[in-house]
Amino acid sequence: xxxxxxxxxxxxxxxxxxxxxxxxxxxxxxxxxxxxxxxxxxxxxxxxxxxxxxxxxxxxxxxxxxxxxxxxxxxxxxxxxxxxxxxxxxxxxxxxxxxxxxxxxxxxxxxxxxxxxxxxxxxxxxxxxxxxxxxxxxxxxxxxxxxxxxxxxxxxxxxxxxxxxxxxxxxxxxxxxxxxxxxxxxxxxxxxxxxxxxxxxxxxxxxxxxxxxxxxxxxxxxxxxxxxxxxxxxxxxxxxxxxxxxxxxxxxxxxxxxxxxxxxxxxxxxxxxxxxxxxxxxxxxxxxxxxxxxxxxxxxxxxxxxxxxxxxxxxxxxxxxxxxxxxxxxxxxxxxxxxxxxxxxxxxxxxxxxxxxxxxxxxxxxxxxxxxxxxxxxxxxxxxxxxxxxxxxxxxxxxxxxxxxxxxxxxxxxxxxxxxxxxxxxxxxxxxxxxxxxxxxxxxxxxxxxxxxxxxxxxxxxxxxxxxxxxxxxxxxxxxxxxxxxxxxxxxxxxxx
Length: 497
What we know:
Blueprint: E1 4-8, E2 13-15, E3 21-23, H1 24-38, E4 42-44, H2 55-65, E5 68-72, H3 78-90, E6 95-100, E7 114-117, E8 119-120, E9 123-124, H4 129-145, H5 154-158, H6 176-194, H7 198-205, H8 214-227, H9 231-244, H10 249-264, H11 272-285, H12 290-308, H13 315-324, H14 326-342, H15 347-364, H16 370-385, H17 393-407, H18 410-421, H19 428-443, H20 448-463
Parallel strand pairs: 1-4, 1-5, 5-6, 6-7
Antiparallel strand pairs: 2-3, 8-9
Helix pairs in contact: 1-4, 2-3, 6-7, 6-8, 7-8, 8-9, 8-10, 9-10, 10-11, 10-12, 11-12, 12-13, 12-14, 14-15, 15-16, 15-17, 16-17, 17-18, 18-20, 19-20
């Protein structure tokens, strides 16, 4: 779907301050609309909406999600100024200002760049309209290409700490098409991922129902591919989304996960240091975000594991070397614990910090975390038991199972994990990830009865699910055209025998 451009301008024939009549429908049809279409944008004016109801709902929706707003300031039209003000309040960028005949000297926009077009005989001047159209095309292209450059909204220029609203939080109830199409698209992405139809996920990523959703569409597709452990493909989609919204926190987190997993897979150009540097940059933007701190903890944990879990070593040697790398282990504990302190309801970071603290005690017999472990166990249990989001019940129940491994008994461990699996939606990758954590504990000889009881539960569940195939593109289709004939090329006669 094409990007959207909302045009804020007068309708019909109006008089300017000198008494001259201007047909703005002609301005739109002969200048603005063809220029926008030439740049690949789909133009929209509020008067094009023929549906019954309050036209303002459609206008506000467009002013929020449109990729570009073109405002014609030829007249001191209150509607146009109001719409421009709404856009400036909602978005920091994506505005093109144009004027017919004269250039507005309004104080708030006096320094803003404006495009002047010529008017003659009530409409665009026939002698200059083609050049005016080229100038508008260039200005639109420049604005779209420099989306993340200087803020054009005076609101965001003068209030540099003001954050643009999340478009979903400003959902307009009477305009259902946007949201119905978007939710249907999200459902198709989820079904394709669960069915292992990675090709469908890649296609759907380019088919977001509304152009303004495309950044989230690519990020959502990247997340789906990451969950299916297709990290290279996922990174490509995430980078496309982040090119549009470079500060999208969810996209930045997902990008870090892919960088980390590609590093663990030994892919050229990827390392845990690169992933760690990525998360530190994210934390410069969002220093209090517990999820990013937890993801940094995962990188630190992987660095610790990579330092001792080497092929050809015995479990006893693994345990000995894991204890020797205690500084790396404490770095991981610190990152996870920082995440949990940022938000004590973030039980994912809490259970990981707690598990590593127990491993530290097991390997080194160092009591430094004993008091914190006793306090954190109860807090993590409380947070997981009162998870309000039904979509997260699998992970909250998994946390309770992990907690039983640390402080419970084998029967309680089995029961807790079975409860978690009852909330798993046949997601093989989620089960495999959880089992891998238990295998790590087994390799280190930690509470083996509890750990083996948990592994047995996962093994039985995973035997009932087929592992998704390792998808790769099977073939590439190449479309090639023929060279256009030169004007002086002679035609050949083809005779049939």
